[in-house]
Amino acid sequence: MTHMRAGGSGDDDPNLALRLWFELAVQRERLAMLEQQLSRMKSSRSWRITAPLRAAFRRLSGTAQLARPGGLARCGHSHGVKPSLVLPFGAVAALLEGADAKKRLFIDVTELALEDLGAGVQRVTRRLLSELLLAPPAGYHVQPVRLHADSGYCAANEFLASFLGLDRLHLGTDVPVEPRRGDCFVGLDFCRDRADELAPALEALRQGGASIALLVHDVLPLSRPDWFPEWVSANYESWLRVLSSQADLAMCISAHTAGELARALSERSLPAPPAGLSVVTLGSDIPPLPENCTELPRRQSGVCRVLTVGTIEPRKGHAQALDAFEAIWSKGGDIEWMIIGRPGWHVDRLLQRLREHPEAGKRLHWLDAADDAVLSAAYRASDVLLAPSLGEGFGLPVAEAGRLGLKLVLRDLAVFREVAGGAAVYFSGETPQAIVQALTDAQSHRGSSRGEWNSWADAAVKLASCATAGQPPAGDRPFDGHGREV
User: Fold this and answer.
1) Does any domain span residue 263?
2) pTM strictly above 0.90
3) Angle separating helix axes 318-330 and 348-356, nearest 10 degrees
């Protein structure tokens, strides 16, 4: 039996079985999606035309006996056959009890319900939703909702059923929500590209008596529009105006982001939400997943493995890091660099460098479609996390790697200092040598603080407390509309 580790959730965790269940349900959904994509590809004209070439290649390479239908190798097990799930009915049913007699905590899952890429905001939404379902705030029933073009927000029942490992129609179809006084809406998903739909949908919830709290991940499209396609910054401007006019509270994932949001509102003469801006620090514990993973490149004995996690886009600093590793390799350094991240925008030349690099598959590894299972295994198979990003709203990989005890080499950003403190080696500047020196310094750094990181359960409690109270709980540092702490 494959050994499982919870990444911070011990055997005494009363919800460990359900956390395992949630992750298995997610893996099953992703498997179904991959099988659909494979089926469409195999039914295409190009697949039929190239069939003789594939058969010839298998014969020439001696792999004809290895080819078998559905043989998708994954972490710790084969997904060739759809897994048979045995639903813990009692435990899951308990999550759905009392909906009619309680106030509702509406959780926006609009983007997650459309497609779960397993990265960025979607990972945050999924983890916080899991914890809120496991431990809802007293007196509230947790109800995922999604935007519908014709009817504002509707109950995301089909999504919730799949999320819980049930048949998609087990909880009924998606129907419009009817808010009551005392209900609370939490905008977990970042619907910044849907401002035209979002504004009237939130207004309808407010008119029905619900309070509105929106989670803010960053304001980088406003502070550094040159890092993004033009439409991203334009859409963010529209979303910011929705936040200002409709939200009762803005919850930011770091104090740095709260300050940046307050500044952005002030610069545009937009009022801050009535209850202000509060900080909800993200979690860092990795979900319970298999430790052995056949998708990871084999590690060379005695070689330091450095990991970088994040979409490959201009602000992430991958080009500088690649220059640094080339300098190390040219001098015979025993070091590997593994990148986990999907290809982004405005980086075509960099992507070509990575794909065609002489060290690709040797000391340079790029996994461009990793799920949580692969990411979890990658953390545990690495020695150092390198985060060369030029701008972040929080830095989730920093917290996750730090919790697991990896050495941290980070660009000297205010938000990274907030998240990692003295647990990291920091570097400044955009020369390759800055990273080379930081990686060297990390070998002797003793600032690791394993275990001193926020859990997702902690984050969910804080978020629920902020959202249902309509104001920051004691100990938070709220910000006014001019970038000042109050």
Assistant:
1) yes
2) no
3) 30
